[in-house]
C-alpha cells in the first residue's frame, strides 16, 4: 500500500528555462579529448595525479579562477592568513558560495601539487554543474514523471561516480549533491562514472532540506534510505519521486530524513548490518525502476 498520509496537488506543468535549451551533452570521445577522464597516477604524497590536476594554487591563479566564473568546489586556506590578497579571495569565495576550510601549512603542503600554494588552494570542478530545473525539464520532455537522486553528504568520489553511473542506467533525470561536507565533480568522480556525466546532470545545492521542500510543491514525493524504515517492497515508489541516500557513515541527516515522505529499508539477511552507499542506492533505484514499469 502507498505509505503516504498527506495529499498534495498534482505537479504543475514545467517549462524549460528562458534559453529553451538543455545543458550540452558531450560524448565519451569529446570528454576524453578534454583530458578530464584520463587515468591518473599516484603522486609522492599518495594522491591521484588526476585529482591534483583539479587544483589551482597560488593567490593570483585562485583569484582569477573565481573572477572568471569557474566553479570552485572547495577553497583551502592556510590558517592565520589574513592579509589583503587572502581576504579578497575569501570575499570571492563567499560570493560564490564556496566551502572554505582553514588548515595548517603542513597539511596545505600535502595537498599542493607543486608546493607553491602561497597559502591558498582551490579545488575546481572537472565538469560543469546542471540545475534542478534542467532535470525537471528533461523529465517533462521525455513525458516521464521526475525521478531524482539526492545525496546527503557523500564524501567518497568512487561512491559518487558509481551512483551517477547507476542513475544514468536506471533512467534518473538528475543527481543532486550538497555543497558542504561532500565531494564534488572531481576527476576521480568523472572516471568512476564511466561517462555517465555526459548524460546525467548533477546539481549542487546549499540546503538539501530546503530543496526537498521546494520540490514537494511541484508534486514530487521523497523516500530516503534508512535502516529503521519500511521494507522497500511495501512502499509505493511510482510517480514523481526523489530518492535520498545518506552519508557513508552517518546515513541521512535527521532534518533531511524528517522532510521526506517515506523511509525505505532494504531487506537483508546477512550478518553485516549495512550496504555500501552506492550499492544501496543502486538497489533502491532499481526497485523504483521495477515499480515504474
Element layout with pairings:
Elements: H1 28-34, H2 49-52, E1 55-57, H3 59-67, E2 72-78, H4 84-96, E3 99-103, H5 105-111, E4 120-124, H6 132-142, E5 147-152, H7 157-170, E6 174-178, H8 187-192, E7 202-205, H9 208-216, E8 221-231, E9 241-246, H10 254-259, E10 262-265, H11 277-292
Parallel strand pairs: 2-3, 5-6, 5-9, 6-7, 8-9, 8-10
Antiparallel strand pairs: 1-4, 2-4
Helix pairs in contact: 3-4, 7-11
Word description of this protein:
The protein has 293 residues and is an alpha/beta fold. It has two domains: 55-124, 2-Layer Sandwich (60s Ribosomal Protein L30, Chain: A), CATH 3.30.1330; 132-292, SPOUT methyltransferase, trefoil knot domain (Alpha/beta knot). The protein has helices at 28-34, 49-52, 59-67, 84-96, 105-111, 132-142, 157-170, 187-192, 208-216, 254-259, 277-292; strands spanning 55-57, 72-78, 99-103, 120-124, 147-152, 174-178, 202-205, 221-231, 241-246, 262-265. Helix 3 (59-67) packs parallel to helix 4 (84-96) and helix 7 (157-170) packs parallel to helix 11 (277-292). Mean pLDDT is 83; it is low at 1-50.
Amino acid at each position: 500500500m502507498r505509505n503516504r498520509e498527506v495529499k498534495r496537488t498534482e505537479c504543475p506543468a514545467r517549462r524549460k528555462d528562458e534559453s529553451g535549451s538543455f545543458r550540452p551533452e558531450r560524448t565519451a570521445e569529446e570528454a576524453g579529448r578534454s583530458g578530464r577522464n584520463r587515468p591518473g597516477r599516484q603522486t609522492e604524497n599518495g594522491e591521484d595525479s588526476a585529482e591534483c590536476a583539479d587544483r589551482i594554487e597560488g593567490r593570483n591563479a585562485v583569484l582569477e579562477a573565481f573572477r572568471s566564473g569557474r566553479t570552485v568546489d572547495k577553497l583551502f586556506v592556510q590558517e592565520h592568513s589574513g592579509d589583503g590578497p587572502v581576504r579578497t579571495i575569501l570575499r570571492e569565495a563567499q560570493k560564490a558560495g564556496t566551502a572554505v576550510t582553514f588548515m595548517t601549512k603542513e597539511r596545505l603542503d600535502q595537498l599542493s601539487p607543486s608546493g607553491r600554494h602561497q597559502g591558498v588552494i582551490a579545488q575546481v570542478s572537472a565538469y560543469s554543474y546542471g540545475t534542478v530545473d534542467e532535470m525537471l525539464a528533461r523529465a517533462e520532455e521525455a513525458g516521464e514523471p521526475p525521478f531524482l537522486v539526492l545525496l546527503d553528504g557523500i564524501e567518497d568520489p568512487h561512491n559518487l561516480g558509481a551512483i551517477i553511473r547507476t542513475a544514468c542506467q536506471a533512467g534518473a533525470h538528475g543527481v543532486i549533491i550538497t555543497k558542504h561536507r561532500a565531494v564534488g565533480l572531481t576527476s576521480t568522480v568523472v572516471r568512476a562514472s564511466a561517462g555517465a556525466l555526459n548524460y546525467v546532470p548533477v546539481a549542487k545545492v546549499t540546503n538539501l532540506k530546503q530543496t526537498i521542500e521546494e520540490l514537494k510543491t511541484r508534486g514530487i514525493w521523497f523516500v530516503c534510505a534508512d535502516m529503521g524504515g519500511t521494507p522497500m517492497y511495501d512502499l509505493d515508489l511510482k510517480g514523481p519521486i526523489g530518492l535520498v541516500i545518506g552519508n557513508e557513515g552517518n546515513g541521512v541527516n535527521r532534518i533531511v530524513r524528517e522532510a521526506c515522505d517515506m523511509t525505505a529499508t532494504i531487506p537483508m539477511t546477512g550478518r553485516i548490518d549495512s550496504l555500501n552507499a552506492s550499492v544501496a542506492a543502486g538497489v533502491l533505484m532499481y526497485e523504483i525502476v521495477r515499480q515504474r514499469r
